[in-house]
Write a structure and sequence with these properties.
single chain, 194 residues, alpha+beta, 6-stranded antiparallel sheet, globular, PspAB-like
């Protein structure tokens, strides 16, 4: 960042730190103790849809890498497109395999980044639920290097449980780098890992 940037008040965006994803398993222990939410074993990486042979090759490499895992207990990794035109690479593991799920998410992000598709990466998320089946996601914002909780209220359409999100934020403040700007806590309605 140069002197002109400082004088004009421009800030350098935070660099993505994919290693932050590895904090999810310990945060899951805290989340279960504080709010009763446990991992579902589902996770996904969201990115802006890219067309072309280079992206298709990257997608095939990532899918082959993750599907070759001999410990995989869930279905193969799937590529889905949502109603907004974004793509989701979805991984399914057992609920007690959060560490393996995190490895999957990290591998997808890293492969996209290494192959020049880092600017298309938007977020990654890991799904959780409480004993009543209420969903919760811990969302990692790729471009910010931070997490935030997303708690949809399924019985009320597109509404969020904001008090629960704030409770989770407080509980996980020592475990994860939480996004301080609440306006960046974007809803991920219909995310496949929820």
């Amino acid at each position: 960042m140069g002197l002109l940037d400082i004088l004009l008040g421009r800030t350098k965006p935070a660099a993505p730190d994919l290693d932050q994803l590895f904090a999810l398993p310990s945060a899951a222990v805290t989340l279960e103790a504080a709010a009763g939410f446990t991992p579902t074993g589902q996770g996904a990486v969201c990115f802006a849809t890219v067309e072309g042979a280079a992206f298709e090759q990257t997608h095939r490499e990532v899918q082959a890498l993750l599907d070759a895992d001999t410990e995989r207990t869930g279905p193969p990794v799937r590529l889905l497109r949502d109603d907004h035109g974004y793509s989701w690479l979805v991984s399914q593991r057992g609920p007690d395999e959060l560490s393996l799920l995190v490895n999957d998410l990290h591998a997808v992000n890293s492969a996209m980044e290494v192959n020049g598709f880092g600017p298309q990466l938007l977020c990654s998320l890991a799904g959780f639920e409480n004993p009543d089946g209420r969903p919760l996601a811990l969302v990692y914002l790729y471009k910010r290097g931070t997490f935030y909780p997303f708690a949809p209220l399924p019985e009320r359409g597109q509404r969020r449980d904001s008090p629960l999100e704030l409770q989770v934020r407080a509980a996980l403040a020592d475990d994860l780098r939480i996004e301080p700007d609440l306006s960046r806590w974007f809803p991920v309605w219909g995310a496949p890992a929820l």
